[in-house]
């Protein structure tokens, strides 16, 4: 079966392929048995470039980083999680959630329809109360989210993974404004972004050209994520990829090695309201 929409949605396949590969490792940082069925249904992306292979290392580290942030939020008593631009995410099925936790996945209608069919075909059963919400982050997604049962009066753990760089600066700011409006005291936010130096790396040019050709260009960057998120009411901390890799007993990926990438940075951020 094929049918995953083109554009940004196709990037979700590369991320799922990275999760599939990591799950096959005896010492994998996580296990995702649904990654392979999702990849096979979507159509595997072959001939991945060197930049793509390096990105896979980042996807693996990023996945574990955000896994830990979300499970920490649940352990702290938060019972509402929202994944914005969830893509082919399977955290509802593979993480050990409290039974009373509600998890919402927001993404484009075509992608949601594709993913729901694959999950149904696999007989996948979530480990929490899961709700898929079909909505575009550039439109009125808060209305769709609340209609699906989201409660803005309850503290929420938000995840904005792998999407902000695809949004124009004004659209990204609007997403953060809306997240702030929906966040009760005690909410948490985890997010990823990049700085301009990362966008301008010569090594990234082939990948950027391919993304642009599939209508998935990167449109924004952030130089100081702590200051940026403070403007939306969040107290943020940044974890650098190199430190994350070392803490997990993994080699520092070339794309996180300052001797290789210079001032280029991928920001992994966690924040409190």
Automatic annotation (TrEMBL):
One GO MF term attached to the UniProt entry: methyltransferase activity
EC number(s) per entry: 2.1.1.-
Enzyme class label: transferase
Coiled coil: none
Entry annotated with the keyword DNA damage: no
Family: Belongs to the UPF0677 family.
Function per UniProt: Exhibits S-adenosyl-L-methionine-dependent methyltransferase activity.
Record GO biological process: methylation
Endpoints of the signal sequence: none
UniProt protein name: S-adenosyl-L-methionine-dependent methyltransferase
Keyword Transferase: yes
Keywords, comma-separated and alphabetical: Methyltransferase, S-adenosyl-L-methionine, Transferase
A Pfam entry, by short name: LCM
InterPro entries: Ppm1/Ppm2/Tcmp (IPR007213), SAM-dependent_MTases_sf (IPR029063), SAM_mthyl_Trfase_ML2640-like (IPR011610)
